[in-house]
Amino acid sequence: MQQITKRQIQVLLQFLENPEPITTKELASQRNVSVRTIKYDLDDIRLWLQERNHDLTSKRSQGVWLELSDSERIKLKSELMEVDRLELFADQTLRLDRLSIQLMLTNQAITSYELAERLTVSKDTILNDLDSLEKQLSSLGLKLERLPRKGFLITGSEHQVRLLIEEVFQKDLTDYDIYKIMDLLLQSEKQDGYELYSAKGTAFQEVFNQVLADMRQLLKQIDTAELNYSELLNMLIRVAIATVRLQNEYTIGRYQLLNDPKEQRELSYLLMQQVFAHYQLPLFEDEYRYVYSDTFENDLQQDVMALTENLIQKVSKKINYSFFNDPQLLTNLYAHLSMRLSRKQKFVNEYNPFKDDIKAKYPELFDAIEIVVRREIRGKSLLINDSFIAYIALHFLVSYEKEVDLRSVRAVYVCSTGLGVTSLIKQKISEELSNIEIAAFASVLNAQEVIKQKEPELVISIFPIEGMDCEFIKVHPLPTKQDLEKIQQAVKKILSQSPQKGTRKLRLETPGNRTSLEDFSKELILQAYTIYEKLLSLFKEELNQEYREAFLLHVFLMVHRITFDQQYMMEGNKTDETEKTVSTYNQQIEQLFSEHNLAINQSEINALFAYIKS
What we know:
By secondary structure, this protein is α/β, with parallel strands linked by helices. It has helices at 6-17, 24-31, 35-50, 70-87, 92-104, 112-119, 123-138, 158-172, 175-186, 203-219, 229-247, 267-278, 285-292, 304-319, 327-342, 355-361, 363-376, 386-398, 419-432, 447-454, 481-497, 517-539, 548-563, 576-595, 602-608; strands at residues 57-59, 63-65, 143-147, 151-155, 409-414, 436-442, 458-461, 471-474. It has 6 domains: 6-87, Orthogonal Bundle (Arc Repressor Mutant, subunit A), CATH 1.10.10; 92-156, Winged helix-like DNA-binding domain superfamily/Winged helix DNA-binding domain (Arc Repressor Mutant, subunit A, Orthogonal Bundle), CATH 1.10.10.10; 163-292, no CATH class; 304-385, no CATH class; 409-497, Response regulator (Rossmann fold, 3-Layer(aba) Sandwich); 517-611. The strands form 3 sheets. The protein has a 4-stranded parallel sheet with strand order 6-5-7-8, with helices on both faces. Strands 1-2 form a two-stranded antiparallel ribbon. A two-stranded antiparallel ribbon has the order 3-4. Helix 10 crosses helix 11 and helix 14 packs across helix 15 (327-342). The longest helix is centred in the last third of the chain and has 23 residues, at 517-539. Mean pLDDT is 79; it is low at 83-89, 402-407, 499-515 and 571-575.
């Protein structure tokens, strides 16, 4: 069969996602290669397509495109996403990743001949790769042992070995992998496992599928609306790593068994308990600490507001842009850092679908934030990596955008949800497109339910969701120019098929006659605090006191959202107990906000109950 490279797969996916012609010059510019290279790529793509009875269409002065029916596009895209990495030529970076995994998931030395067999390359290629790998490992404080007549083995700090294993697995995951893994977790019946490319042919693959099966059983008893798919993914990978390393007699710390009733309510504990029992492994306290978080112990406390102000001021100075003039940036970034730095479960290698796009498109901003963050954030150096910085960069990028709110076609946007993420996407789409209303943002965990509830005419997603009854568009984590063009074409198509419903929804004016922005902001703050005090009185002892400060911030932001017609539109699963609690307080909360001339929706009311004792 014709083999194609990773770049050729990306080009082919672009053809499948966008039916409009594109020139070889544009393709070359997008990928930073020569036109000649793109022409060679197109020759290989044609051969791959011809094996499937399809071909590229090209016309001088117009470009190249694929003429296919919607069903043919879906079929080819599905095939590409499922088998792409099994058919591509592995470059040295991919080979080094697979090579390191082979050597870290064993306690036995492996010969160069056996490594060449496993990776299906020549022995000379493996020997050259091992030299490169040795330098790479040395920079991480690890060592490539060369044992005479036995082979090669990686040694060093157990914590560093595990971080490298995790980094390789996380780095090689695609959005398709994330979607399929989360989909498997949410299925009620028993399912086959999922093949990880980097784990192919290793003991890790069988263990990972066992962890998936055990997690699926646990999630049947849990409200998934409260979960974060990034944390779920970290748990799955870390429990599998801990299992394989313990099977190979490598421990991360002491041999003291975990016996802490507080931790036995955590999902990570329940998962470890089931998996370790299956493999007859002891549940050590330090193994649990490794699985649970990279910063299990309390770090140095820091004034987050002062930190946020410093970050904004110093990044503004570095790139000569007045971010400090944007009060919304201060609010949003403070909220993000408060939640991120106070969360118990913190992971170094956290999946971030925006990272590569932000680094490529905004390198000056990314570098400036990295320099400032490393100087300003104390006690969290372990967490400051590309993923952490990219999430902060999202908040700064919001300030580059101007909000325009013209809508008509209802859409649900499935992405890595969060205030910075959704604000940036909303503004980018609003600025570039017309006649579209984002009815809700959803994550991969609650996408199907939100789509069912909102009944959109269009679903836009960074994940390849299957079985859509409405128009569906897959986009990059940060929408590209081509993505925005696809969305606009879909909107036009939907509007042409049925009369436009409703009118454009204009941004609400601020209530009353305001003599100045200062007067308005003062009144808004007083109104928010009054509502906060009344909510405290309403909830009384039901409010979780640990979250009291976070609840204050939440109420202030909520009043701001309602005032400017930007209320939450996301909804997830609710347990029967939550439904009962919500119905008890619903009328009182609506009455309270009505007294202040604010109309609160059900999603905002539901969000308040995150601060109530379970």
